[in-house]
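Supplementary Methods. Inverse-folding protocol.

Structures were first reduced to a C-alpha cell string of length 228. This string, shown here, constituted the complete conditioning input.
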C-alpha cells in the first residue's frame, strides 16, 4: 500500500502544480513557466517518492515498466488506481481554488488545464497532429525513464533527466494538445470539466498507453537494454 499511496501523492502533486500553474498563473508565466512547473513537480516527486514506488505517477509509464518485465500485474493495477485517484483529487482541489476567484471563474469556460485539440483549443492543431505528437512524445518519454532507471545507468541522476525531458516535451507540445503523455493527468481535469474535454479524453487515454507499451517492448526484447 505504501507504493500505491506514493503514486497517489506523486500524481496529485504533478497535476495540481502543473495544471494549477496553467490555470492560475498561465498568463503571467507563459508556456515556459507551465513547462517548468510540470518538470519541476516531477523532479521533486522523483526524489521524494522515488525510493518508495519508483515515481511512475503516469499509467503510460507503469504500462511500459510492466511490459518491460520490471513489475507484476498486481502492482500495475495498484499503481494505475493510485495515479488516477491522485489526478482526480488534484483536479478537485484545483477546481475549489480556481472557483474561489472573487471576480468569478467558470470551469466550463476556462477549464482546469485539460488536454484537447482542434479549432478553439490553443493553437488549433488537428487530430492527426495530436495523435502523432502524443504517441512520439510519450514513446520517447517512457524510453528515457526506462533507460535512466535500468541497471548500469547512473540512477541518482534519473529524476533530473526525466524531469528535464518532461520540460522539453511541454515546451514543444503545449500548443498542440496541452501535453498529456499521461492518461491520469488528462482524465482528472476532463472528468470535472466535462463537455468537449471529456469527449476528447479518449485520445489521451489510448495513445499514450499504446506508446508506453511499445516502449516497454523495446526494452523487453533487449534492443535498448544495457549489455550485461
Amino acid at each position: 500500500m505504501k507504493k500505491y499511496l506514493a503514486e497517489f501523492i506523486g500524481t496529485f502533486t504533478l497535476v495540481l502544480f502543473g495544471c494549477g500553474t496553467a490555470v492560475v498563473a498561465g498568463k503571467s508565466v507563459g508556456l515556459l513557466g507551465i513547462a517548468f512547473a510540470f518538470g519541476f513537480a516531477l523532479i521533486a516527486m522523483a526524489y521524494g517518492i522515488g525510493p518508495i514506488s519508483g515515481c511512475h505517477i503516469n499509467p503510460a509509464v507503469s504500462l511500459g515498466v510492466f511490459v518491460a518485465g520490471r513489475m507484476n500485474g498486481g502492482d500495475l493495477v495498484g499503481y494505475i488506481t493510485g495515479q488516477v485517484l491522485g489526478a482526480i483529487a488534484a483536479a478537485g482541489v484545483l477546481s475549489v481554488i480556481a472557483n474561489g476567484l472573487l471576480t468569478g471563474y467558470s470551469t466550463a469556460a476556462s477549464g482546469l488545464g485539460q488536454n484537447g485539440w482542434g479549432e478553439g483549443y490553443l493553437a488549433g492543431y488537428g487530430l492527426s497532429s495530436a495523435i502523432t505528437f502524443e504517441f512520439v512524445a510519450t514513446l520517447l518519454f517512457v524510453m528515457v525513464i526506462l533507460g535512466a532507471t535500468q541497471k548500469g545507468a547512473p540512477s541518482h541522476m534519473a529524476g533530473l533527466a526525466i524531469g528535464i525531458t518532461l520540460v522539453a516535451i511541454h515546451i514543444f507540445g503545449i500548443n498542440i494538445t496541452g501535453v498529456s503523455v499521461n492518461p491520469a493527468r488528462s482524465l482528472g481535469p476532463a472528468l470535472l470539466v466535462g463537455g468537449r474535454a471529456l469527449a476528447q479524453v479518449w485520445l489521451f487515454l489510448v495513445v499514450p498507453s499504446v506508446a508506453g507499451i511499445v516502449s516497454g517492448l523495446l526494452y523487453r526484447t533487449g534492443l535498448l537494454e544495457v549489455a550485461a
